[in-house]
């Protein structure tokens, strides 16, 4: 039987800027790339698109009446998802604060940033290398994706993997000699 994978339609994950050579935006993006150790600007644009979709949904909900069932249900869903992810603090759990979110709030929750902040890596770039080389696990699962979004409840379970030389596994090639 033939496969139908070519029939699937996937949406865009990032959106390029309208003005590609705007100096202020380029400087702000380079600052974020350096601060969070990103590979390229598409990683910023991906976060900005996700943030834009969330902000648009909350803007639409804010236009509805306070007692509207759709606003109550979908608003609570957006707020619950953002607080569980750790992007929105518990004391700011309203739709108004969702509009004030920045891309840096999402970049703070990436696994790469969390590994560096926990002190498992010497630098933000070292954190990316450790993740890509499968030295980091979240809970029992080894994660090798630096842009993995860490939830609040799984943040305390970030550690070196059991098979890693850093986590008590088999020593590396140089140490074995």
Low-confidence stretches: none
Helix percent reads 40-55%
Overall outline: globular
* Terminal CA distance: 52 Å
Rounded mean pLDDT score: 93
Beta-strand percentage?
A: under 5%
Largest sheet data: 3 strands, antiparallel
Please state the structural category: mainly alpha
Integer-rounded radius of gyration = 20 Å
Tally of helical runs: 8
Order of helices and strands: HHHHHHHEEEH
Which strand order does the major sheet show? 2-1-3
In total, the number of strands is: 3
What would you say this structure looks like, in words?
It is globular, with a radius of gyration of 20 Å. The protein starts with 22 loop residues before the first helix and ends with a helix. The relative contact order is 0.10. Helix content is 47%, strand content 5%. It has 177 residues and is mainly α. The protein is built from eight helices and three strands. The protein has a three-stranded antiparallel beta sheet, with no helix packed on it. The mean pLDDT is 93.
Question: Topology of this structure?
Answer:
Blueprint: H1 23-36, H2 41-63, H3 69-85, H4 95-98, H5 103-108, H6 111-117, H7 124-132, E1 136-138, E2 141-142, E3 158-160, H8 173-176
Key features of this structure:
3-stranded antiparallel β-sheet; mainly alpha; 177 residues; 47% helix; globular
